[in-house]
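Cross-check.
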Amino acid sequence: MSSANLTREETAARAAGIRLHTVEVDLDLRSAPDAAATTFPTRSTFAFTAVTDTTWVDFIGESVIEVIVNDRAQPVEWDGARIRLRGLVVDATTPNVVRIHATARYSTSGEGLHRFRDPVDDATYLYTQYEPADCRRVYPCFEQPDMKARWRFTVAAPTGWEVLSNGAETSRDEVAGGVRVHFTETLPLSSYITAVAAGPYHRVDGTHRGTQAPIALGVLCRASLAAHLDADEILDITRRGLSFFEDAFDFPYPWGKYDQIFVPEYNLGAMENPGLVTFTEAYVFRGASTTAQYEARANTILHEMAHMWFGDLATMRWWDDLWLKESFADYMGTHAAAAVGGFPDAWVSFATRRKGWAYTQDQLPTTHPIVADIPDLEAAKLNFDGITYAKGASVLKQLVGFVGEEAFFRGAQRYFARHAFGNTTLPDLLTALEEASGRDLAAWSAAWLQTTGVTELSAERTSDGLELDVSTVRPDRVTVGLYGDAGGRLVRRGEIATDVVAPRTPLEGARRDDVVLVVPNDDDRTYAKVRLDAASTAAVARGLSTIDDALARAVIWAALWNATRDGILPARRYIDIVARHAPEETDAALLTDATARAAFTIGHFAADDDRAPLAAQWLDTAWNALSHATPGSDAQLIWARTVGTATSVCGDRAADLRAALSGAIPPPAGLPLDPELRWAWLIALATSGDADEADIARELRTDDTASGRVAARTARTAHPAASVRAAAWQAAWSDETLTNDHLDATIAGVRAGGRRDLVADFDDDYFARILPTWQSRSIEIARRLVIGLFPASPSLDAADAWLRDHPDAPGALRRLVIEQRDGLARDLRVRAAQPSR
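Predicted model, tokenized:
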């Protein structure tokens, strides 16, 4: 194992040997605008007491120049990841002072200090991203969450730049070639949530009246995106969220200011750095956007805000308890979005998107308990997944119902009061919740937090009424919705609620002659995969879109999708149901997911002989829905995007899209043909062979932005010629100048249109490359390659052979290959289960 891959045991031993007090960081970023400059000076000064005379500091960079321990220089002992410290004063009361002078590297992978040059105005922008362990790429540090410290930053940068960190700026000094900016010392923080950003960012200021003091607010983005930044809405959500959380947690926002910065080429949706939250620029909408997109942004804003308490104030001791921050933030983001964020239907989106992610992840052979076993950092990196986020949030939703919302928040208040600025484990939280609710949570925790797998729920019609069947008995209460037919509409006639105590539970009072549809969990309270019986499936095939309750529709859409991906519902029938009811779906999130899942079904689950006719049928469905959608509506925009996706597989409407893009015919009334939609259509045309380099170059001249350049790369690499795909394949693996976004664009081009015939020859090359790539590239870049270029072959033999021949490959790499192999196995299994015509 590389020394960069820290283990739980050795970090625990390090934390037992020293007590960290303060860290001072001095960065010199004045060279950043010079593209030829690849490195920058970095200095860290630590004050800590020790009960051992030796330890190490983490650093991954260009060089370590000097190590001074208690005013005495010592020989540099650095293996590329760890700097050894010797001769420490062993005294629990006398602090050691260690100064390290090093050289760090600017990043283009989104890890560490990412540097971006804006093609619009040639301006340079910097920001940091560390979770779980990339702080050490920017300055020497103790890279583990349980070694908190008070941090003080000083950053030198070009004159005129915004320079930000967790604390507020206290002063600026003019220095040669720029300014040196000083920041106030923070309250105790873990290294992974410290942060720096610098560049000519556009800034909008605001203020929030906090419970104890005014909180300075800032919203920032690149200058070239300023016209698209709806800062007033973002500030409004921020103020409402801060008021909600300060009151709910009975703990004032502790981090002083609250800046939120939207940054380019970001690997995540957002990151909860106290006082300096970073977000992907995808949330700065350059074109028309749906209500679901605005809701997703509000949810993310509130998710990160919840982290100011869950995660930043009280932090998990090690990554095993990652759920202590992510599950809670995921739950609280949706809860706050529905309560005060202006999106009362946020739980509908949660039901279709977050739970859908969790169900998929929980059925993989690599699934894990919510409270996971995380032996090292590589495992931690891959555990930011659907279990930790969405399944954890789902069972927390159940827990709130189990203990009561008032008791849940009282327990959270006790938790923060006891553990503010400290580190925690599972028992710390459960104890606080048990005290507040008076309930014993040991059985609940063992059943939901420490087990794996998705419970299946179904209702069986019997001669006496109904029985609820569950595949796994866990402490739970389930509601079963009963629906009748009222003039062609499906109408809820009532419900039966029952505690789950056995695999089969009779539902008393369920005998109703007018019940045509039975939906277990139609309130989406529990975390379970719903199975509809044959009569209920027939009922929703006729009338799904007539159900008034969007949450119930979400549960039914999910049930249909799960039945399809499990090979129970034939792909042709699923596409028929989507084609009939998606054009009538009024919820933007449900419609977006239904259209995406239909496309996935055609590409992955349809029998080989069905794929082409289903693709043509689906394109006709999307085209007709676009033609009849209300002008300017969410539905119109979603169907316009769907037309592009469908055209990349079936080119029957290519001439119409070309004509609209060229201006020969007008787009549908009310549809803004903005750069985002234009590129989506052009990429589809390039994939089907109906657009060429001249078309791409012409479009790029009108949108020569960062987004435009990424889209142009996808379009160019998507051309359906074997030579083009081969060149893109080689570039993805070998061209280390590609930024993370450009790598994604290249991978998307290689995979565009599902053209297996153009890339089948690269299967052996894939399996020859993945281990050397894992060993030589950063985990973020390697992960994208391993997942994105996994062969969609008609056989599992190559994947099985690699796994058999590489038993000692890094566990994180094997996990990715196992997961991709499982996805392929599902595709092959479901295709084989499709009924013949």
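The mean pLDDT is 96. The first strand starts at residue 18 and ends at 28. Passed to J.P. for a second look.
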